[in-house]
């Protein structure tokens, strides 16, 4: 049985996500690197966020007995790890100070962690909501 997350944890998760993403993007905006390099780092952030949320969902689905194919599960792990690796390689080869490299790495990891927490909170809140078919939430239409 899943407990509904507290409003404080939901708020903290959203604040962490917005803080991480905002800090990372403000850092990119103010950086003195070429536009194509800024685009690389921005794309890695978006890729990493999507991959981390997708991985969290597949892990959670498996724990709840919802079928997940092994290929998709493996792709989620590959995507998440490759996003972190691509950021690490980019920062390793960047002509940034160590403090700037650390800033981007920490803002990136905060964003990934917070995205997972926000997705978990959203799912947990929805699971504890009104039952499907009740007056508050109409049943979903069949697609077959």
UniProtKB/TrEMBL annotation:
Domain YiaAB two helix intervals: 9-61, 72-124
InterPro entries attached to this UniProt entry: YiaA-like, YiaAB
Keywords tagged on the record: Membrane, Transmembrane, Transmembrane helix
GO annotation (BP), single: DNA damage response
Region (Disordered): 125-144
Bilayer-spanning residue ranges: 39-59, 71-95, 101-118
Source domain of life: Bacteria
Pfam families assigned: YiaAB
One GO CC term on file: plasma membrane
NCBIfam families: PRK11383.1 (NF008482)
Name of the protein in question: YiaAB two helix domain-containing protein
Organism: Hymenobacter metallicola
Upper classification of the organism: Bacteria, Pseudomonadati, Bacteroidota, Cytophagia, Cytophagales
């Amino acid at each position: 049985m899943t407990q509904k997350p507290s409003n404080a944890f939901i708020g903290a998760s959203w604040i962490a996500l917005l803080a991480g993403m905002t800090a990372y993007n403000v850092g990119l905006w103010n950086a003195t690197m070429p536009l194509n390099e800024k685009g690389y780092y921005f794309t890695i952030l978006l890729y990493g966020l999507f991959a981390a949320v997708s991985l969290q969902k597949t892990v959670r689905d498996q724990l709840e007995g919802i079928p997940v194919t092994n290929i998709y599960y493996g792709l989620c792990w590959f995507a998440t790890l490759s996003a972190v690796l691509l950021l690490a390689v980019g920062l390793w080869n960047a002509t940034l100070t160590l403090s700037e490299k650390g800033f981007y790495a920490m803002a990136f990891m905060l964003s990934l962690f917070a995205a997972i927490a926000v997705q978990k909170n959203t799912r947990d809140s929805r699971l504890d909501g009104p039952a499907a078919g009740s007056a508050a939430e109409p049943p979903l239409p069949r697609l077959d």
